[in-house]
Amino acid sequence: MIATVTFSKGSHYTIGHSLGTKAAPFVRANVTNFWRAMQRMGHRRNWLLGKANEEIGLLPPHYIDEIAGIAEGSKLAFEDVLVYNLYGDYVFSDGCTVMMAIGEAGHNGNTLFMKNSDQVGNDSMVGEGFDQNKEIYVIQVVDPEEGNRMVGVSAAGRTGIKVGVNDKGVATGSNIARTVEFRERKMDISQVRASDRTQLMRQGLEKDNAYDAASLIARLLMENPTSTPGNIEFADSNEGIIIEGSYTHQAIDVVRNQVAARANRFQLLEYTNMPEDVSSVCRYQRCLQLLKENEGQLTLEKLMEFSRDHANGPGQNSICRHGDHYVEETSLGAAVIEIDREAPEKSTIIMALGKPCRAWRSPNGYVSLTVDSDMSEIPQGFFDGGVWKEFYSEEPQLP
To answer: If we measure between CA atoms, which residue out of 386, 317, 315 comes closest to residue 354?
Structure first.
């Protein structure tokens, strides 16, 4: 669930401390659940702490400072929050659907970007802060002393982001990839150093354009692939760059003045996909159909419409995903972004909380921000989880 909104400014330690303080119960809930899940997987605490001490170099020093701030603000041990940030992807892997329309294919020359966030629930996600057995997210505005201001969505307690945009007009999203390697779980936490996809996305937004972001992340992925195969997407006014990364292979798709999409599968590395993954095929094809049928008429409102699409469903095969049980991978929220070519700091991100088919249909279900927004007009329901609880339901809202 998305539980609150935080605004953090200053040094990275200060940013972390602010987040840790404002979202303390949610950070503690996520970290506690992470440790519970790791224990169920057979990983001993002391062993994980030792591994984290050896692999702390996977994170840039300023993000280590931020983690220290989160720990202090939330009254948790630094080591506990560090392990959660390094290995959270092993436990909480996102599904997701991403669309983009770059440059002239967008709206009046402005690039458009959309992500539906999907996730599997877990019976361990219960207690204070949790709702519907889902990990706890926060909307973040981060304004460091040096570097780019960012607006996006993060798991409470993690420095990485799930979707976001910076003040230079770079947007990012990602999808796990359902490959044969993923099914067989060939990547073992005990045997490898693995990067965290959300952390890489955050690092990418430190760059001023999609090319530089993708170049950095592609290099980092070659050094240390992520714990699960997947796509990372970056987009700016001129280019969309999609990095497909498995344990042993990498491919890059560059998009200019065209539309593109990804679901939970590879397109360039297609031969690695699980053949039984029908959902990802259906969603990918439906995304391209909607984008191409509406070329020349694409807007943020159109992307909201696509985000709540129920073709091939409603169910696991539709863009707005539904299930009968919390262990199924379903949609938890969505974001649409328009990058302002002339004034990138005025780029717009609109975030819907809860099921897209419900939240996008009500003006109370989503919040619209520019990257330079001061958040002064955000309704209270976005700070206390009220909007999520009102608009999250597995019962589809049909036209």
So the answer is: 386
Tokens standing for residue 367: 């919040």
Find the helix packing angle between 78-91 and 45-55, rounded to 10°: 90
2 forms beta bridges with 137
Average pLDDT over residues 41-55: 90
Q: How far is CA 354 from CA 130, 235, 287, in A?
A: 14, 25, 20
From its phi and psi, is residue 169 left (phi > 0), alpha (psi between -120 and 50) or beta?
left
Q: Cβ–Cβ contacts within 10 Å for residue 313, how many?
A: 18
Report the relative pairing of strands 2-10 and 137-144 from DSSP bridges. parallel
Query: Please, are residues 77 and 269 in contact by the beta-carbon 8 Å criterion?
Result: no
Angstrom distance (rounded) from CA 303 to CA 110: 13
pLDDT tens for residues 285-333? 999 999 999 988 999 999 999 999 999 999 999 999 998 876 688 898 9
pLDDT digit string, tens, across residues 277-288: 999 999 999 999
Q: Which domains does the chain have, with CATH numbers?
A: 2-373 (3.60.60.10)
Rounded to whole angstroms, what are the CA distances from 139 to 36, 38, 107, 145, 319?
A: 25, 26, 25, 20, 22
Bridge partners of residue 117, in order along the sequence: 333
